[in-house]
Specification:
- With 524 residues, the protein is an alpha/beta fold.
- It has four domains: 140 residues, Rossmann fold; 104 residues, Beta-Lactamase (2-Layer Sandwich); 83 residues, Helix Hairpins, CATH 1.10.287; 162 residues, Histidine kinase-like ATPase, C-terminal domain (Heat Shock Protein 90, 2-Layer Sandwich).
- The chain has 15 helices and 19 strands.
- The strands form five sheets. It has a five-stranded parallel sheet, with helices on both faces. Strands 9-8-12-11-10 form a five-stranded antiparallel sheet. It has a five-stranded mixed sheet with strand order 14-16-17-19-18.
- Strand 8 and strand 9 form a beta hairpin.
- Helix 12 runs parallel beside helix 13 and helix 13 packs antiparallel against helix 14.
- The longest helix is centred in the middle third of the chain and has 49 residues.
- The chain is elongated and about 160 Å long.
- The two termini are 91 Å apart.
- The C terminus is likely disordered.
């Protein structure tokens, strides 16, 4: 390496610690005779001025006399090391001494020169090599510092990772273990360091693991490196749990190492199991709905025939029916109609569950819908102890809805209210925004037996029927309210209920729109 590359065009700053003026003059002469490089020489003629100059750290190289003022140059060399003197030190001595040479080098001297053998060329070469060596050492130290900092950053990242990160050598022994691994497997790092990774595997995986490592040792081929697979892990407490393993390998001068990133996928597996169960249940439900729909169609045909022929017989065109015959035929007709209603209800439910029920929306008049239902039901219910009342404002804006399906919902709600009310009244009320006459809710209230608080959500489950007391009817399929809620969901409405045992119930169809007000909000 030439001086131009080592020092550029700047003078080399030399510190000479030497108590002999003649040696100082000789050294200055030698430095002045060196070509292609200039030197800036500072002379410290005593041990004290020398250590002060060293502490200033203003030089590129130091020439140090072994014997100075009766002192020991090695002690001064020790002082320079303690002062973190970064420039190289070349020790000068009057005699060649191997032991002294070794000790000087041990203390950090860059070179050991005998004065009576010194020449300008030798001095130039020693200074140049010492400076180059010091710079190389400084660069190496810088790189080591960066490596240590990088390792600290790596450890910080790895230790803060939620996943387990494990490092194993080519003998399958654990050499690194982060906090995530400690949390996941339950072992501290000092418990697993040097142990085989088989410690973390259920017994059923260990033979394959040994075969894989042997194959890698012989052929250098690893089937799992660079892949992510699902396996099972074994915790310290003996628990076996599902894991996701990502494996990588790398090679250094010390051999080949394997890095495993392991994640607990118990929650994912549980979610997948729930999803599969849900899909299986949904498919079973669809199959059930298809079966029910098919059977319902098969049953409706003979029932229609029974109803049709019974109606023909009841016409009694030949006049030969006895009163008892007519009574039996009326019973047959009523039972057939009841069974047809049950079948139609089940068919509606199966269509809803199968997603085959279509909604056709058009402007509808709530006043007409409600009054048509009330008129129909008034003819069927002749209980003089229960009044059926309607409360509709004079002006009600039409709503965009499927009128038939909304009518089916209200018919069922009003029919239920009449069934479960012995005395008092059933009220159907349409609520509108007084500012624009926009309807936002339809309430069906009764003074009947009420519903216990613990059953307010259960009543919407299919086929559920609550026990009734006294003479109140308990017949039916238990599908009415379930269908009502499903239809409301299809229409974009909410079906809500408030009830007090013994004090009656209020079912509310909350219509969508900016003016919609929840029944619970009004009550609260």
């Amino acid at each position: 390496m030439c001086w131009a590359r080592c020092m550029g065009r700047h003078p080399v700053r030399v510190l000479l610690i030497e108590d002999s003026e003649s040696d100082y003059l000789l050294t200055r002469h030698m430095l002045g005779s060196i070509e292609n490089q200039t030197f800036d020489l500072e002379w410290a003629s005593s041990w004290q001025t020398g250590i002060e100059a060293i502490r200033r750290a203003a030089h590129d190289v130091c020439l140090l006399d072994y014997r100075i003022g009766g002192g020991d140059g090695l002690e001064l060399l020790r002082e320079s090391r303690q002062a973190s003197y970064g420039s190289p030190v070349i020790l000068l001595t009057g005699v060649s001494d191997y032991r002294l040479d070794v000790e000087a080098m041990h203390l950090g001297a860059a070179d050991f020169l005998v004065k009576d053998q010194l020449t300008p060329g030798l001095l130039e070469r020693s200074i140049r090599y010492a400076i180059a060596q010091a710079r190389s050492l400084a660069e190496l130290n810088r790189q080591q510092d960066e490596l240590r900092a990088s390792e600290l950053r790596f450890r910080s990242v790895v230790q803060s990772a939620g996943d387990a990160i494990i490092l194993a050598d080519q003998s399958s022994r654990i050499v690194f273990w982060n906090l995530g691994a400690e949390t996941l497997f339950g072992y501290r790092e000092d418990e697993v360091a040097g142990e085989s990774v088989e410690l973390l595997m259920p017994e059923s995986y260990r033979e394959k693991h040994r075969a894989g490592f042997e194959r890698y040792r012989v052929s250098g081929r690893a089937h799992l490196v660079g892949k992510t697979i699902e396996l099972e892990g074994l915790r310290k407490d003996g628990t076996i749990f599902p894991i996701e393993l990502s494996l990588a390998s790398w090679t250094s001068g010390e051999g080949t190492y394997f890095t495993a990133i392991i994640r607990d996928i118990s929650e994912r597996k549980h979610a997948e199991e729930l999803r599969r169960s849900k899909e299986s249940a949904e498919e079973a439900n669809r199959s059930k709905s298809r079966f029910v729909a098919g059977i319902s169609h098969e049953l409706r045909t003979p029932l229609h025939a029974i109803i049709g022929f019974t109606n023909l017989l009841l016409q009694n065109k030949d006049g030969n029916l006895r009163p008892s015959d007519s009574d039996f035929l009326h019973r047959i007709l009523a039972n057939a109609k009841d069974q047809l209603h049950v079948i139609n209800t089940i068919l509606d439910l199966s269509k809803i569950e199968a997603g085959r029920l279509e909604v056709t929306k058009a402007p509808a008049n709530l006043d007409s819908i409600v009054r048509d239902i009330v008129k129909q039901l008034e003819g069927e219910y002749r209980n003089g102890n229960v009044a059926l009342e309607v409360s509709i404002p004079p002006a009600v804006k039409p709503v965009l809805t499927d009128g038939n399906k909304l009518k089916q919902v209200l018919m069922n709600l009003i029919d239920n209210a009449l069934k479960f009310t012995e005395t008092g009244k059933v009220t159907v009320e349409v609520m509108v925004n007084p500012m624009n006459s926009q309807p936002f809710r339809i309430d069906v209230s009764d003074t009947g037996i009420g519903i216990p608080p613990g059953h307010l959500q259960e009543i919407f489950e299919p086929f559920l029927q609550l026990e009734t007391k006294g003479d109140l009817p308990s017949s039916g399929t238990g599908l009415g309210l379930s269908i009502c809620r499903s239809l409301c969901d299809l229409l974009g409405y909410q079906l809500q209920v408030q009830s007090t045992p013994g004090g009656g119930s209020t079912f509310s169809v909350v219509l969508t729109g900016d003016e919609s007000v929840s029944l619970l909000e009004q009550a609260g």
